[in-house]
Amino acid sequence: MTTKKTPRIVIVTGTSQGIGQAIAQTFLDNGDIVIGCAFSALEKAPAAQQMLSDYPDRYFYYSVDVTRTEAIQQFVDSAEKLFGRIDVVVSNAGKNVFKGIDCEESDWEHNFSLNLRSHWYLAKCARPALRKSQGTIIIITSNHAFSTMPGCAPYNISKRALLSLVQSLTIEWGPEIRTVGIAPGFIDTLGNQAWFDSHPDAQIARDRTIKKHPVGRIGRPDEVGELCLFLASDKAGFIAGTTIVMDGGRSAIMQDEEDL
Fold this sequence. Notes:
By secondary structure, the chain is an alpha/beta fold.
């Protein structure tokens, strides 16, 4: 006799597109309930509309500006009220703030508000519910946390700081709450395509990037979703306080051929 699995209540931020959308889809396909959010209003988020249509009883979407702490608190409160608990938080929302180290102060502040503070505050707001469920926090950072390229500040600086956030949440909130990070590299999303499109020839830029990956391709959003699903499971119960690099071997290369 097969015992019916109780669906988990999973919060995922940044679900309107890209990696966040794929993470939400993966948990939904697993039978879980996903409460997602993104900056975009629902009428401007076709992917969210599709998931609402496909999973009317298991997917919920809120438009949230995660640079506003009061908006994060309202979102978490609303999410918990829906089902009375929260089991998993995937803190994914963010964007590339590639302005260079000489960026304006406004760029610096926006970057840290979105790409660092929002993750910390989301965790703080969800902590009471996660303590009750003995839940898991997964923070999505970037391979830029480990090594970066010219012009990618201040984004890479905030992503590096998320490594320490994962560590601190683990050692201060464990064992009740387990925290782990994921650092994706080049993932085939609209955001990365926009970076390719910024070059004179987008296809040449894409091909050049692919050649820098030992696996011979760039990543897929669903692969990040599958890793989240594993890390949120009991099978990953001994993984905590660390950030897993998911970059197709890109960071294993000491230098590129054109630099030789």
